[in-house]
Specification:
heterodimer; A: 528 residues; alpha/beta; Rossmann fold; 10% strand; B: 457 residues; 14 helices; UBQ-activ_enz_E1_Cys_AS (chain B); nucleotide-binding (chain B); ubl conjugation pathway (chain B); ATP-binding (chain B); ThiF/MoeB/HesA (chain B)
Chain lengths: 528, 457
């Protein structure tokens, strides 16, 4: 047992460093459904099976064709004629014995007719290369059951992804460039006391040069405030003057030349960082103002109870500020000074987290629930996020379509938005002709005319006054609904990572439409 | 594509192909389109070229390499060579999908080739369980395109230098048939990049050396006497304590980073890591530092870069499109693509520009400017620390009194010992003259780089 765990730790080591053991646990408890085992789909699953997703189920009624084997790595030459769900499950399952692979030899339309609740059991449903009508039906079922839905498509040299989820909460967004939380503009009492304990002017030279820059800036800010009516440096001119003040603080030797004091250099370099106002960021303010935060009931998800508790904290113990983060960046200092400074922040963070916990408990008690907080210490209030992705029926509705977004993007007629409009148009074509345009060579020329009509009727239906260049109509007929493997592979990677974000509630998913242009190697995200 | 069809018998023709096999690819090779390259002509022969003639070299059979091999094989490329000097490790299995637990310890190139050859009939991947440096021009010259999925900047630069050395100039004009395009990809966590290099024509690896962030090395005084982070404690155990307890060489020489004798620390040996972990804990306890874990220890000692399957899939997916050749015949916007999916998905492309005085691809002679009183040590430091050169262990030779003399060479212990005293001598003492040419060899390039020595006052 222990050996297996060590082996798993080794196997998954490189990814555990990204989403941690708790992220991995979430992944291993997830069950994902793939509708259609086309190449795009099996590539997505490959990227979920390899990192150890708990289970997958493939729903596909198709029989494997020679064409399928040509672009799908998870089919072999003796798969032809077999059910595609079954054939691909075998080769995907073999990638990782920790994962449980299942298949249903059924057309999704049939399942939606006979047993729509089949889909309720999944953590996430992913559909690839699915016709529009079935996609909308499935989207509706999943929306009502609050199951996240990821639509993915490879159409010639265009990749498409659409995320449909009522509400997705992100506990750890892991932002790339988060600002430090140093509270130098409004130091908490323990920090002030710690700063006071330093007497810069009377320190030994070695201590002076190894005092953390945070202390130095704090000390000089105190000096500045006394001389500037308790106003912190506000603009560039004042910050420059403050930097000069710091410069003057550098010890000089007998000849009056400034000594080498790297910690002061750091202080001067970090003035902007130090003066970042310690206020609640907009994304968290939005969370506080949300209806789900205001009304905590016994049905409230843990995320919203947490947000409410943080809001309560901000209004009470926090005095307008979030709980202290507790981490500080490395800086030039001797070990003792650095560690004791770090501990001041750390201990305050623990205190604040305890206060938030108490708010959580009181809310849970008020609605008659028991508190099960294992991982409270891991989240960071400033990094909480929530994402809402509209239902498909709203995207497709004539009254609810995001006309402005589409029209303004199309100010540039070569924007990726035109590729979206073309995908919608080929779907119209499919509705009318029960096939996609240009699949066979002899069809290409006539289909260009037919597809152009579809484009016009689509634009008219939605009242979109945009220009779709003929070149794109021609290009989409050229594609003949092909699914080149390299584009499928790209989308497989992109979609799989979004799926992992949804399952682990870490990192922020896209909202809500992603288009990849493999011709120009560009991409764009739209909210439709 | 429709269901309810009769199961087809797979009629494998004499070419090993079956009906419809290449249908997805053919639409791009045999149909014209409004966005293709002006020189592109649709033809049934292009597919034949891919299948029968085109020869591709993939360097690296790891995270990117496995994805590349699969993508190329399913795009019609049949003559593929793959080079990788590594064997398979358990930690590879989360993304290097051509390998299984039973393959641990076996050469990556060989296992990868076997897998592809059996899964994709007709594809003939030839493995080479070797270092790239073990091949010469005659090997590399046979390929139409070279694709790199390497994890080392040094290796990339070497490859870059090799392809530059293949270029043929007729009366100062570059012969285009001597150009072998190099496509280079890299990933790290949720970030990746892919670039196209046409040696002699577009920016090479060395032209944009600053794009590669320098490795984080903590200052020695922090590690030795003022640790603050758990990483400092680990580096203390690795750099200072291990050599002390595992070799007989005095620690002074350790600090000079000279080659050692004795048991080297092996990041893949769990016992070694465990030793470093314990020592790091002790060090951390001394200074009240928290956060030393086994995982962190391993990460610091092995310089581990986090990795997942999805990022490798994305970057490898861009590569065949970046080839500018038969495959899709489009002209990508720019030669350098960047990808990041930490927050949503983000791609960005730009045109990397050639550097006028690039030490690798420009024909501009490199200069070294030093006073005659400068010590050879200073020249060595310049070669390694200068941002545009970033050499690793340069070997410096000069022609003195008509003979080729090695001034300093690090990579062979006996020669290092013999030439070490030269480091403390001045350029004048070594007999070097103003305008003298120095030849410098280094792992970052297969060819010697010539420098001209200019004495400053």
């Amino acid at each position: 047992m222990a050996d297996h765990k060590t082996n798993k730790d080794q196997r998954y080591d490189r990814q555990l460093r990204l989403w941690g053991d708790h992220g991995q646990e979430a992944l291993e408890n997830a069950h994902v459904c793939l509708v259609n085992a086309a190449a795009s789909g099996t590539e997505i699953l490959k990227n979920l099976v390899l990192p150890g997703i708990g289970a997958f189920t493939i729903v596909d009624g198709h029989r494997v064709s020679g064409e399928d084997v040509g672009n799908n790595f998870f089919l072999s030459s003796d798969s032809v004629g077999k059910n595609r769900a079954q054939a691909t499950t075998e080769l995907l399952q073999e990638l990782n014995t920790d994962v449980s692979g299942n298949f249903v030899e059924e057309n999704p339309d049939r399942l939606l007719d006979n047993d729509p609740e089949f889909f309720h059991r999944f953590s996430l449903v992913i559909a690839v290369q699915l016709e529009e009508s079935t996609c909308l039906r499935l989207g509706s079922v999943l929306w009502n059951a609050a199951v996240p839905f990821l639509v993915c498509r490879t159409y010639g040299l265009v990749g498409y992804m659409r995320l449909v989820v009522r509400e997705h909460t992100v506990v750890e967004s892991h932002p790339d460039n988060a600002l430090e939380d140093l509270r130098l503009d409004q130091p908490f009492p323990e920090l002030t006391n710690h700063i006071t304990s330093y007497d810069l002017d009377n320190m030994e030279k070695k201590d002076h040069s190894h005092t953390p820059w945070v202390i130095i800036v704090a000390k000089y800010l105190q000096k500045w405030c006394r001389e500037h009516d308790f106003q912190l440096p506000r603009n560039y001119k004042e910050k420059e003057a403050f930097r000069q003040l710091l410069r003057e603080g550098i010890r000089k030797n007998e000849n009056g030349t400034p000594e080498e004091e790297e910690n002061f250099d750091e202080a001067i370099k970090n003035v902007n960082t130090a003066l970042n106002p310690s206020k609640v960021c907009v994304s968290v303010e939005d969370l506080f103002n949300a209806e789900q935060c205001e009304n905590i009931t016994s049905q409230s998800p843990a995320f919203w109870v947490m947000v409410r508790a943080v809001r309560d904290f901000v209004q009470a113990e926090g005095r307008g500020s979030l709980p202290v983060r507790g981490t500080i960046p490395d800086m030039i200092a001797d070990s003792d000074k650095f560690i004791s400074l770090q501990n001041v922040y750390r201990e305050r963070a623990l205190q604040d987290a305890a206060a938030v916990s108490r708010h959580v408990e009181s809310h849970l008690q008020a609605v008659g629930k028991v508190c099960i907080w294992g991982t409270l210490h891991m989240w960071n209030a400033a990094f909480l996020r929530v994402v809402h992705c509209r239902a498909l029926v709203e995207e497709y509705g004539v009254d609810t379509v995001h006309k402005d977004e589409i029209t303004s993007c199309m100010d540039n007629p070569d924007s990726e938005m035109v590729l979206y409009l073309m995908l919608r148009s080929v779907d119209c074509f499919y509705q009318q002709h029960s096939r996609y345009p240009g699949v066979y060579n002899y069809q290409v020329e006539d289909d260009i005319v037919r597809l152009k009509l579809c484009v016009h009727s689509l634009l008219q239906e939605y009242g979109l006054t945009v220009n779709v260049k003929d070149d794109y109509v021609h290009e989409f007929c050229r594609y003949g609904a092909a699914e080149p493997h390299t584009v499928a592979a790209f989308m497989g990677g992109a979609a799989a990572q979004e799926a992992i974000k949804l399952i682990t509630h870490q990192f922020v998913p896209f909202n809500n439409t992603f288009i990849y242009n493999a011709m120009a190697q560009t991409s764009a995200t739209f909210q439709l | 594509m429709a269901d309810g069809e009769e199961p087809m018998a797979l009629d494998v023709g004499s070419s090993g192909d079956w009906d419809g096999r290449w249908r997805h690819v053919q639409k791009f090779l045999e149909r014209s389109g409004p966005f293709t390259h002006p020189d592109f002509e649709p033809s049934e022969e292009t597919l034949q070229f891919l299948l029968e003639t085109c020869k591709i070299l993939v360097i690296g059979a790891g995270g990117l390499g496995c994805e590349l091999l699969k993508n190329l094989a399913l795009s019609g490329f049949r003559h593929i060579h793959v080079v990788d000097m590594d064997t398979i490790d358990v930690s590879n299995l989360n993304r290097q999908f051509l390998f299984r637990s039973k393959d641990v310890g076996h050469p990556k190139a060989e296992v990868a080739a076997d897998f592809i050859n059996s899964r994709v009939p007709g594809c003939h991947v030839v493995p080479h369980f070797k270092k790239i440096q073990e091949f010469d021009e005659s090997f590399y010259r046979q390929f139409h395109i070279i694709v790199c999925g390497l994890d080392s900047i040094i290796a990339r630069r070497w490859m870059n230098g090799m392809l530059l050395s293949l270029l043929v100039y007729d009366d100062g004009v570059l012969d285009p048939s001597s150009i072998i395009p190099l496509i280079d990809g890299g990933t790290e966590g949720f970030k990746g990049n892919a670039r196209v290099i046409l040696p002699g024509m577009t920016a090479c690896i060395d032209c944009t050396l600053e794009l590669y962030p320098p490795q984080i090395n903590f200052p020695m005084c922090t590690i030795a006497s003022m640790p603050r982070l758990p990483e400092h404690c680990i580096e203390y155990a690795r750099i200072l304590q291990w050599p002390k307890e595992n070799t007989s060489i005095p620690s002074l020489l350790v600090l000079m980073c000279l080659p050692l004798y004795g048991v080297a620390l092996d990041g893949d040996n769990p016992e070694h890591i465990h030793w470093v972990f314990q020592k790091s804990l002790e060090r951390a306890a001394e200074f009240n530092i928290i956060g030393v874990t086994y995982r962190l220890t391993q990460g610091v000692v092995k310089r581990i870069i986090p990795a997942v399957a999805s990022t490798n899939a994305v970057i490898a997916g861009t590569v065949p499109s970046r080839e500018n050749t038969a495959l899709f015949a489009y002209v990508p916007l720019n030669n350098y693509l960047v990808f990041n999916d930490v927050d949503g998905l983000y791609t960005y492309t730009f045109e990397a520009e050639r550097k006028e005085n690039c030490s690798a691809c420009s024909q501009v002679p490199q200069k070294l400017q030093f006073p005659p009183s400068a010590k050879l040590q200073e020249v060595l430091e310049y070669l390694t620390e200068n941002a545009s050169l970033q050499m690793k262990s340069p070997a410096i030779t000069a022609t003195l009194e008509g003979k080729n003399k090695t001034l300093y060479l690090q990579t062979v212990a006996s020669i290092e010992e013999k030439t070490r005293p030269n480091l403390c001598k001045t350029l004048k003492e070594l007999g070097l003259a103003d305008g003298q040419e120095l030849a410098v060899a280094d792992v970052t390039t297969p060819q010697t780089v010539l420098f001209k020595l200019n004495f400053t006052s």
